[in-house]
């Protein structure tokens, strides 16, 4: 396999209610990757409209995700932060990938099945084709590493399948244009640490999600300290004290989730947490969790508010980021057109 320069790409949908799962599963990881990689972080507004979005709310949500990136510590000068719809090459490559990906691949996507629900006939075509756009997001930059939560794993596998099929279908053209043996890298998912799948605070078998009708099921990045404390204190648990060994968390879904959250917030392993809290009851453990959650998330929420009070500042960052992203995307798109045989 050809060697590709390392580049990180990831995206977050501007669909409101950014929560602790988005933070621990994704944004928190983005922040640390900045020290080791060139990174591109995208507010994926084209993905958001696969289900209807009110235009005014969409605009506010694009700014909110951008503010969250900045408030969590993403540096838009050293790295690239932008919104997807300002770089048309994403949509352009997505169309090409619609012609590379197979219907059978998309039909297997569990996220489509979940989101479309029983009424598949009435889902948008965009919701079905969502994973080819996601593959385009990553591959238009020939990104090699993609930090995401566990729920995006299947989409990443599809992106790899698309990259591989494109490289194979066009191998002769790719070689004749002097691109080594492959044009696209196989993007590697980065799904690591104790909180790759943060679960609902009300039901440990359900993922923490933006769309859960119960606001108590999640901690939003914009929740105040009081609300964070209240939600943690009300979180579902079981009657047993915490165990001393990770293996004993087994079927105790809610306990496992709270331990994972605490571990991720403190940069510990789950076993570290149980070494400290094994034998403790939940009221004790929840006090400690409230303390770290408030300490970590409180300043982020406050900084988000401050940044959001200046939409012109946010829009300027997005515009500048898009200009830089287009330089890379445009060059790659030109090469892709040559490979396919388009005249330009
Ligand atoms: P989205 O907007 O649903 O979520 C953004 C990121 O948060 C992660 N995440 C979670 N992690 C742990 N526990 C949870 N409960 C949880 N909920 C969400 C997601 O895994 C994701 O990393 N399809 C993507 C957006 C996207 C993208 C891309 C990502 C579009 N193009 C290209 C990477 C590369 C999505 O809907 O994420």
Write the layout of secondary structure elements.
Layout lengths: L6 E6 L7 H14 L4 E6 L1 H4 L6 H18 L7 E4 L5 H10 L4 H5 L2 H7 L8 H15 L5 E3 L5 H17 L1 H6 L11 E3 L34 H10 L18 H14 L3 H8 L4 H27 L2 H30 L4
Parallel strand pairs: 1-2, 2-3, 4-5
Helix pairs in contact: 3-13, 4-7, 4-14, 7-8, 10-13, 11-12, 11-13
Bound molecules: tryptophanyl-5'AMP.
Roughly what percent helix? Answer: 40-55%
Apparent shape = globular
* Order of strands across the main sheet: 1-2-3
Q: Specify the CATH architecture of the largest domain.
A: 3-Layer(aba) Sandwich
Please identify the structural class as seen in this structure. Answer: mainly alpha
Proportion of strand residues = 5-15%
Order of helices and strands: EHEHHEHHHHEHHEHHHHH
What's the CATH H-level homologous superfamily of the largest domain?
HUPs
Query: How many runs of DSSP E, i.e. beta strands?
Result: 5
For this entry, give a set of tags.
single chain, 344 residues, Tyrosyl-Transfer RNA Synthetase, three-stranded parallel beta sheet, 14 helices, 5 strands, 54% helix, binds tryptophanyl-5'AMP
Task: Give a quick precis of the structure.
Helix content is 54%, strand content 6%. The two termini are 29 Å apart.
If you had to describe this structure to a student in words, what would you say it looks like?
It is a single chain. The chain is mainly alpha-helical and 344 residues long. It has two domains: 7-196 and 311-340, Rossmann fold (3-Layer(aba) Sandwich), CATH 3.40.50.620; 215-306, Tyrosyl-Transfer RNA Synthetase. It is built from 14 helices and five strands. The chain has helices spanning 20-33, 45-48, 55-72, 89-98, 103-107, 110-116, 125-139, 153-169, 171-176, 225-234, 253-266, 270-277, 282-308, 311-340, and strands at residues 7-12, 38-43, 80-83, 145-147, 188-190. The strands form two sheets. Strands 1-2-3 form a three-stranded parallel β-sheet. Helix 10 runs antiparallel to helix 13. The longest helix has 30 residues, at 311-340. The protein is globular and about 70 Å long. The mean pLDDT is 97. Tryptophanyl-5'AMP is lined by residues 9-13, 21-22, 25-26, 44, 47, 134, 137-138, 146, 148-149, 151-152, 155, 196-198, 207-208.
């Amino acid at each position: 396999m050809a060697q590709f320069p390392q580049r990180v790409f990831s995206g977050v949908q501007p669909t409101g209610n950014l929560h602790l799962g988005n933070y621990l599963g994704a944004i928190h990881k983005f922040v640390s990757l900045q020290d080791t990689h060139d990174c591109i972080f995208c507010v994926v507004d084209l993905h958001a409209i696969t289900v209807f979005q009110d235009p005014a709310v969409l605009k506010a949500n694009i700014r909110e995700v951008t503010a969250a990136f900045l408030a969590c510590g993403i540096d838009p000068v050293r790295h690239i932060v932008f919104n997807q719809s300002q770089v048309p090459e994403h949509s352009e490559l997505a169309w090409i990938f619609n012609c590379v990906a197979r219907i059978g691949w998309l039909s297997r996507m569990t996220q489509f099945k979940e989101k479309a629900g029983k009424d598949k006939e009435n889902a948008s075509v965009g919701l079905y084709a969502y994973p080819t756009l996601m593959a385009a997001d990553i591959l238009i930059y020939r990104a090699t590493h993609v930090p995401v939560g566990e729920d995006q794993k299947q989409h990443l596998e599809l992106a790899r399948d698309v990259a591989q099929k494109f490289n194979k279908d066009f191998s002769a053209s790719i070689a004749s244009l002097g691109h080594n043996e492959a044009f696209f890298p196989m993007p590697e998912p980065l799904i690591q640490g104790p909180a790759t799948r943060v679960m609902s605070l009300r039901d440990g078998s359900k993922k923490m999600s933006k769309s859960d009708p119960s606001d108590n099921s999640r901690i939003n990045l914009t929740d105040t300290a009081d609300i964070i404390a209240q939600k943690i204190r009300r979180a579902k648990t079981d009657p047993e004290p915490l165990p001393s060994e990770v293996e004993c968390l087994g079927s105790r879904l809610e306990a496992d989730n709270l331990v994972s959250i605490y571990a991720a917030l403190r940069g510990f392993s789950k076993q570290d947490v149980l070494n400290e809290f094994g034998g403790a009851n939940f009221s004790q453990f929840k006090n400690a969790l409230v303390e770290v959650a408030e300490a970590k998330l409180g300043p982020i929420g406050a900084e988000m508010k401050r940044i959001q009070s200046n939409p012109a500042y946010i829009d300027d960052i997005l515009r500048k980021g898009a200009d830089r992203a287009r330089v890379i995307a445009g060059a790659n798109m030109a090469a892709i057109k040559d490979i396919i045989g388009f005249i330009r």
